[in-house]
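Limitations
The structure tokens in this dataset are predictions for the assembled complex, not deposited experimental models. Users should treat interface geometry with appropriate caution, especially where small molecules or nucleic acid strands are included. An illustrative entry is reproduced here so readers can see what is and is not provided.
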Amino acid sequence: MTKFLIANWKANPTAPHDAVKLLRATARAVGRRRKVTVVVTPPTIYLEAFWGIIKKEKLPIKLGAQDLFWEKSGPYTGQITAPMLRTLGVSCCLVGHSERRAVGETDEQINKKIKAALAARITPILLVGEQEKNDAIRQDILVDQLTRDLEGVSSKDASRIMYAFEPAWAISTTSGNKAESLDNIIAGIAMMKDIICRFFKLRPANAKLSFLYGASVNGENVADILSRKELSGAVVGGASLRAEEFKKMIEITSTKS
Ligand code: PGA
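Predicted assembly:
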């Protein structure tokens, strides 16, 4: 089994040549390693050039998108649709990231995006989690997000989605933030599994669901986090922009499968 590192570059880097440099450095770090799958999700504007480079240089990188629009095409100024992303080699897409929820994306929109991605054969990476730190993980928040975001998705598509537990309060962008504790990560994943299995009426023992953790995963904690069998990988923001640190994370991850 391979483990996934989803490199969420967010709105970085600003210059195209820096972006290409980072793509190549990331690919070199993967090299011939088979037990780690690295998905680079750059700003949309870099996708076309990246897809050209990946194909030409046969780089061991999968391409992801940070967002998509739910209609296929038409009068939607500023939008990028799932079939368009598909033509640029995109195989998965973040949906419901807390930074998008924070600028007004609703669960209803997230739900439409998941369906549009599935229809275009793009794997949606659905991100859920609490905005604020609480004493214990708030199951009600996970239930609310997951049931609204997955409404109307058929149970046969349950395993075509990757589910990420990403508490917004732990994201490294705010300095001083730290990852959720390992115990709470595992508890959060167990809650999500339970909620999703009930929702799709799946038996937990047979359900083939993939779970990721995101928020402040870095060179220091990736070994502990990804040694847990409950996790298929991690969503990495800040550390995926630091080539040396991300290289170390790729090496560590390839030994954790
Ligand atoms: P971080 O970001 O790794 O910098 O905390 C993760 C994310 O926002 O996806």
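Some entries come with short summary sentences. For this one: The first strand starts at residue 3 and ends at 8.
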